[in-house]
Design brief:
The chain is mostly helical. It contains 5 helices and no strands.
Amino acid sequence: MTRRTAAAQDGLTFLKTATALQTLTLFFQAVTAGMLLTSSHGYLMHDVGSKVMYAAAMLYLLAAILAWRPGGGSPRPVLYATGFLVLASAQVVLGIAHAPSFHVPLGVVMFALSTLALVQTLSPHWLLRPAARS
């Protein structure tokens, strides 16, 4: 195995792990959002989970960059991760503003998008394909 191949494999493994972590933190946020309705611990868990989710979104972006640049993978995950970090930022702002009519649907969309990103990340053909040149 060459050094470039090893770097590419490490980058893909990190990207898969970061995407899975992000998806799991979003699922945890959905669970704790439901707990807000029934438990006094729900708020604290949702608040802590929001910080972990935001950190996971930043980790996802870092992993996407590392899979792309040194590993020679597709830049598409970087675009997705950047967009996701923007959505996560909006989600935090909406949560702080106590705007559930926007916060809850955006959370559902984010979970769906993260799940799709995870499925794409686990597809070996999608990640190894270089970007199309225009």
